[in-house]
Each structure stands twice: as structure tokens, then as C-alpha cells.
Design brief:
Elements (H helix, E strand, L loop, with lengths): L1 H46 L3 H9 L1 H45 L14 H49 L5 H34 L6 E4 H10 L2 H7 L2 E6 L5 E4 L1 H17 L6 E9 L2 E7 L34 H11 L4 E6 L3 E10 L2
Parallel strand pairs: 2-4
Antiparallel strand pairs: 1-3, 3-7, 4-5, 5-7, 6-7
Length: 365
């Protein structure tokens, strides 16, 4: 239906252009047909001085008119050149762009149309190609997003359902129920974290990140965040070593959001660090900015995966695939928060040597 509408619109445009062109030609030739004899006669009477010259010119007026008509025919033929140029340079490319766009809106695969002229039509072609590619990418992202979120919800729900049913029907004996109920609680917490992360990212998408920026000391914020991971570190025998260039590092930022960034980065570092290793956290004053880094001693991330780690739900076997409890949204949230502060975050990773995340913050004035 959309393709049919664009087809009708295309022919309306062509009809309007050809109609205007034919009306112009018809009016011009009708005017020339009726005006030429009168103009020729008046001109001959004006230039004739004697009766003999008038009689001579009058006998040749038809021939003179025929010459004028011949000239008009030549002008008409020459006027076809702009029409041909219009057809080749404007209408045919425009027709191909409309045809390609109509196919795409009707559900067919869009094949980009190349038109390299530096004019309005070239801009239109580039815009249509860009919009089609954006829509295609958005559709692919949505399909991948739904697939990932379905998988991440299905796995814990299946575990919860299976263990609860096993407890209810007596498959799991009473003395073992506490163990499996703890697993159910863990899976429920995983679902809760996933839901909260999705709500957070949805807030970022809809309204951006609302920040309450104030001046605060970054050192106690880092230290209090480290304390939250004491239990996790004991299980893997990890040491978190903070290093500060000064006892107090004042920054201007949203303290709650920055603590969320630190929590996600440290949590990520603990998950992918080897047992009996160290995690280094540094905060350095440099001119007008503070650089904060979180470095683990894990297996690192392969170079081809680095650009994709910020994507929502993206996981790899080499870096994040081992994490079965993660949501795959932590780094996406981290980047959104840092970008909302108009700051930068980068990642440096070497396979077998660990990964380091570095972000910047504005110093307090």
C-alpha cells in the first residue's frame, strides 16, 4: 500500500512537470503563430520607403514568415535538451530513490542507491540511505535485545521453578532444602538486579541521566565502596589496593552515580580476576581533572571484543562469558553515567595480563 502511494506520488510529480512544460510550449507557439504574421507585416511597412519596395516586400512576406517558423522549430528542438537533461539528471535518479524507499517500506531489503552529485538530490539520497540503515540497525538491535533479555530471564526462572517444584513434590529431602532455597534466593536477586538495570537504562534513554552534582571528597567514596566487596574478596582471596595521590581528592560530580560506577567496575574486576590476585584502584590529580582507574589481574579481553563490551547484554567467552550471574548491563550503565558528566572512559586490556578501566572527573573549583 505504501509502495502504491509513492508510485502515485511519483507519477503526479512527473505529470506536473511535463504538464507545466507542455503548457509553456503550447502557449509560446500559439502566441508566436498569431503574432508572427502581424509583426512581419508591421515591420515590412515600417522599413519600406516607396510603393515599389512595399509591393516587393509584400510579395515575399510569406517566405519571411516561413523563415520565422523555421527558426521557431529550431528553438523548439533546442528546448528539448533541458527536458532530456531534467529527465536524466533529476527524474530518473529520483525515481530510483523513491522505488528503493518504497521497497524498503513494503518489507523488502533496502539496497543503498549511490548518487554522488553534490546537490540537493545527492543530499536526499544520502539521507534516505542513512535513515534506512538506521532503521535496519535499530531493528537488529531490538531483535538482539529481546533475545538476550529473554535468555537472561528464562535461565533463573527455570531454576527457581525447578527447585521449588522439587521441594514441593519431595524430590529434594528436607535436610537439603535450605541449600536449594539459597539458590532460589540468589536467582531471585539476579532477576531483581536485571530488572533494576533495565529500568536504569530505560531512564537514561527516555530522559537522559539526571545528575545532582556537588563537590565531594572522592577518597572516602572509593574506600566505602571497596568495603562492600569484603565478602566476595574473601571467597577468592583477592586484595583490593587503593592508591591516592593525596589524602583528599575533591571532585565535582553526582556522588551517588559515581559510587554506582565504582561499584560496577569493582564488581566486574572481582568476577574476572584470578583467585589469589590483586585489584588496583588509583585516583590521580592531573591539572583540572581527576583520573580514576580500576585494574584487575584477570585473563583480559581480546582486542576484537573491546569495542563491543559497552553494548547491552554483550558477553564473550574470553572476558564475560564465565559470569553466569551478571546481567551484561553494568558497563553500559557505567558509560552512560560518565558520558552524562561529559567525561571520558576508556579500557586497556591485554590477554593474560588483566584489564584496566580509566575514567575522568572534574576537579572541584
Amino acid at each position: 500500500m505504501k509502495g502504491k502511494s509513492s508510485h502515485i506520488m511519483k507519477h503526479k510529480l512527473l505529470g506536473s512537470c511535463l504538464g507545466a512544460y507542455l503548457i509553456f510550449l503550447l502557449g509560446s507557439f500559439l502566441a508566436a503563430l498569431y503574432l508572427t504574421p502581424a509583426l512581419v507585416t508591421n515591420y515590412l511597412h515600417a522599413v519600406a520607403g516607396t510603393a515599389e519596395s512595399k509591393q516587393y516586400l509584400a510579395s515575399h512576406s510569406i517566405a519571411i514568415q516561413n523563415v520565422c517558423y523555421l527558426l521557431l522549430l529550431i528553438v523548439f528542438l533546442l528546448s528539448l535538451f533541458p527536458a532530456v537533461i531534467f529527465w536524466l539528471k533529476f527524474y530518473l535518479p529520483f525515481h530510483r530513490i523513491v522505488q528503493a524507499a518504497a521497497q524498503y517500506t513494503d518489507g523488502y531489503h533496502y539496497t543503498p542507491f549511490q548518487y554522488d552529485e553534490d546537490n540537493e538530490l545527492g543530499l536526499l539520497c544520502a539521507s534516505v540511505n542513512y535513515l534506512a540503515e538506521s532503521v535496519h540497525s535499530s531493528g537488529e538491535y531490538q531483535r538482539k535485545f529481546i533475545s538476550n533479555i529473554s535468555h537472561d530471564f528464562r535461565s533463573p526462572l527455570t531454576s527457581i521453578k525447578g527447585y521449588v517444584e522439587a521441594i514441593l513434590d519431595g524430590t529434594i529431602p528436607p535436610e537439603m532444602q535450605e541449600k536449594y532455597l539459597k539458590i532460589v534466593v540468589d536467582e531471585t536477586e539476579r532477576l531483581n538486579r536485571l530488572t533494576e538495570s533495565l529500568l536504569t537504562l530505560n531512564t537514561f534513554d527516555d530522559r537522559g541521566v539526571y545528575l545532582e552534582q556537588t563537590d565531594f571528597d572522592l577518597v572516602p567514596v572509593i574506600e566505602s565502596t571497596i568495603d562492600l566487596f569484603e565478602g566476595m574478596c574473601q571467597k577468592k582471596n583477592l586484595r583490593i589496593i587503593p592508591t591516592f595521590t593525596s589524602p583528599s581528592i575533591m571532585v565535582h560530580a553526582d556522588m551517588t552515580r559515581i559510587q554506582q560506577v565504582l561499584y560496577n567496575l569493582i564488581d566486574n574486576a572481582i568476577k574476572f580476576s584470578y583467585a589469589d590476585s590483586e585489584i588496583l584502584i588509583r585516583a590521580n590529580n592531573q591539572k583540572k581533572r581527576v583520573f580514576v582507574s580500576v585494574k584487575d589481574s584477570g585473563e583480559g579481553i581480546a582486542k576484537e571484543h573491546l569495542p563491543k563490551i559497552w553494548d547491552r547484554f554483550y558477553k564473550t567467552d574470553a572476558s564475560r562469558g564465565r559470569d553466569k550471574k551478571g546481567t551484561g548491563l553494568g558497563l553500559s550503565i557505567v558509560r552512560e553515567i560518565i558520558y552524562a558528566h561529559e567525561q571520558n572512559i576508556d579500557v586497556i586490556s591485554t590477554e593474560g595480563a588483566g584489564t584496566e578501566f580509566v575514567f575522568t572527573l572534574n576537579k572541584a573549583q
